[in-house]
Predict the structure.
Amino acid sequence: MRKPQSVCVGFFLFIFSSLFSLCFSASTSIETSIAPMLKPILPAIVNVRAQVKVTDINTLRQLQKQQQGNDHPDNGLNPPVSGTLVSMGSGVIVDAKNGYIITNAHVINEAPTITVTLSDGRHFAAKVIGVDKPSDIALLQIKAKNLTALPIGDSNQVKVGDFVAAVGNPFGLNQTVTSGIVSAIGRTNLGIENYENFIQTDAPINSGNSGGALINMEGQLVGINTAILAPNQGSVGIGFAIPANMVKSVMNQLIQYGDVKRGVLGVGAQDITPDLANAFNLSMTNGAAITQVLPGSPADQAGIKVGDIITAVNGTPVKNASDVVNTIGFLRVDSKINISLLRQDKSITANVTLSDPKKRQLSIQEQDPFLYGVGLKDFDQLSPIHGNVQGILVVSVEEDSNAWHADLRPGDVITSANQQPVKSIAELKAIAAKAKKVLLINVLRGPGAVFLVIDKES
């Protein structure tokens, strides 16, 4: 009785082990190489060469410093020769029909001469369609036939642990592929760009990789390689890529308008820590707490208040303050949005039309042309040189403001306006409001004093 049973068991074990071997063999044969995925899309990765001729050595050094930066893998900068600055980076063809190529803004850095080299060795002069420095995205165009475009994937689907490949031209070595995994998503507050929502990867990224592609295993573009976090610009497995969805949003605006005109909501926001959640009687830490609402801003006009909690923008959940910045930061001027809020445990919705920051700035400037951009503080001090001084301390002055052009500087103490003594900000503003073309002010500066003329039309 036992013998037939052992034969039966042995037979099934043989079948199981054979199937396991076949499955294991098949799976390993598929997973040992990503060459089949890469082969059709590698021609979409190009070399970008930007060249700037500079006669002023100070300007040359400034351009070098801007291109090198602190965290960008410095574009493979070559030393200046005869007043020429050359940077080498990468780019990604995203539209074969129209010849559109995405790269980093810091790769081309306002260069008048940009050359794109394809994987087959062809060279083309590139036209700049548009540049968005806050996101570090630039869109180029070449006129060429038989181009290969890399399909753009949904970067919102990228997860930690996904396998990815980075393709670019590190150190001028064309069509270099490195691989790794997604180490983190949603990286912010790195101080690399104005708008940050980086995909972090351990796929090695080096000098010259800027503007290259981060590709998922489906052969789709999920990010543009932009920066590394490493001493001496060496790769230690911490690289950052701009998510493809962010890239696509900027690209569409550059194609349609030639620029990115961001709308302004007019709020300050803060992440919700466990302590803040407890203080606000919240059961979660997702969302962003409104800490400031600018007077006359779209948020102010929509009734948004300090202490409101933003939970979603246009139906997309908000995890933290960076989500608010990145979501609204890529919406164009005059965009109509709805913001979901929590106010004292009650859910409300605010409908907002984003405004043009420049128009708002001009409006405020028109209301106070003489003192716009000047930070002031009431001042009362006993000075060994000037005696008992009562006036207004200049705390800050925005560059390019009328007051700045009049040579008003932080540290000055305003003691009179239009030959009338002033002891408070209210008195100064009252006189400035009545002034017509110019405002004459007397300021104490160090041990001396000077008269300054602020021109309304400067």
